[in-house]
Amino acid sequence: MIISTDSNQNNLLKTRKRTAILVALSLVILTLLVYWQVQYYEFLVWDDYEYIVENPRVRSGLMVENLKWAFSENDVSYRHPLAWLSHMLDCDLYGLNPKGHHFNSLLIHISNSLLLFWLLYRMTGELWKSALVIALFSIHPLRIESVAWVTERKDVLGAFFWIVTILAYHWYSMKAGVGRYLLVLLCLTLGLSAKPVLVTLPFVLLLLDYWPLGRVNLGQTLSLKVSAPLRKYTLGFLILEKIPLFILVAASSIVTFLDAERIGSISSMEGLPLGFRIGHVLVSYMKYILKMVWPIDLAFFYPFPEVAWPLWQVARCAFILGCISVLALLNSKRRPYLIVGWLWYLGILLPVIGIIQVGAQAMADRFTYLPHLGLYIAAIWGIADYSSQWRLNKALLPVIACLIIAFFAILTHQQLGYWRNGMTLFSRALEVTSRNYTAHYQLGNDMIRKGEIAPAIQHFSEAVRFKPDHFPAHYGLGLALASQGRFDEAISHYMTALKVRSNHAGILSSTGDAYFRQGNFEQAIAFYSKALGIDPSLWVVHDNAGLAFLKMGMTREAILHFEEALRLNPGDRTARHRLYIVRKEIEGTNH
Fold this sequence. Notes:
Blueprint: H1 2-35, H2 48-53, H3 56-59, H4 64-70, H5 81-94, H6 98-124, H7 127-139, H8 144-148, H9 153-174, H10 178-194, H11 201-210, H12 235-241, H13 243-262, H14 274-293, H15 311-330, H16 336-349, H17 371-390, H18 396-416, H19 422-432, H20 437-449, H21 453-466, H22 471-483, H23 487-500, H24 505-517, H25 521-534, H26 539-551, H27 555-568, H28 573-590
């Protein structure tokens, strides 16, 4: 009988293992089917060009100089060196063919789904609940932005190391040891170097200690089956255990804040008062839940409302969020997954919810990549738990689950089509949002690259009408006007942009170009000098400054700038030719 029992258990384990493998393969196939079209999409003028296509550091691939740059300060964004390295590797592998870049982002997303399935299944022992959670995570329309936008590689890559860190922590929780703890620290460090938003991970590990790991000793027995270790610990010990992790994320937070302040991406209290922010935070938490349930009218950018949310709407959101929190807390002993899932959602969203506003977006679909996992877990486990109490037809739940997955898969496949190129993406944003100055600005950028100057001017003009202090739109409008020879108007918009961002070398240089085209070489030199004072490595500006000095008969200064342009860019044929002509003229004069 004992042999028979052991044999049955082995067969059961083999069957469960085979089933888990089949489920994992099904998740891969489902995700590939939904997202397959993304590999045929273009780079977007929305950051892809600045980050990759026109970034010489990234385009030239994995070189020693580029590695140093990736780990140092830069004017493009906050630090995420591991994400930079992944883009460089893509350029080494595929050049500037967007197909490979898109496909690698998709592969990382699929890897995340598989790792999450394995992690959740290992921690809870619940195969089908875990499978449904990860299916929703993988193919939900709110994942599109993180997968289809190449610039957001940092999102899927950061999530990868987030999951790996939790896997390492689960391994550590089985048998605590210095080596295993150091592995957790290493994985978290790699994650923070991919995307600093992982700062909430130590908090999440505390939640997992409560459920499903069952490491917290609160004097109660968990009612659900969990893969809990033999030992339990006080909450104080578990917090103390994570002090090195908290120190690491605190250091990362400080560096990220200073970087954001340096590049000017943090909104001031004058621009967004505290009262406005608090109201918006409450409304955003609620809207992210609604978007999870009914993900329609999605856009790449959501502008802030013109005025603060009505008090009744803020109060309603606060009341609903408060009720959910109370219900989750009251059920924390009998149904711990509710409080864990709810605090997971609230906590992971906290750094990007808008209390400290970084960036111009009111909300962003990409912000939900990891936070919504908590809601999926709470919902799936809760529905399964309550349905068993209410004695619902067991055959009905799988059918409903399949219908929900099919609905989201079809919706994601359809909405993914808007990310095909800039024109479709930005036009869609104008359809589903109002006063979207960023959509107008990006459409202007897209059109100016195609040589469609007149419609570009219209979109830039709309952008500055909706947001008069949007300096990139003023800059773009100035460039478009200058290309039509309307230099006075162009200079006017450049000056408006400089009032907002006085240290922008590109705007200063373009202002110099406009004055040069008007024949005002003295003013041109003044603006070229300001641009070079901010960024002396701009060889094109040295080239233009040299020509301006030459026009004024200041040959010595012209030669110095042409020589510097050649030093910075030895392949600059224009500077080399001009320098040759000037020197020949000097030789002719001397003879």
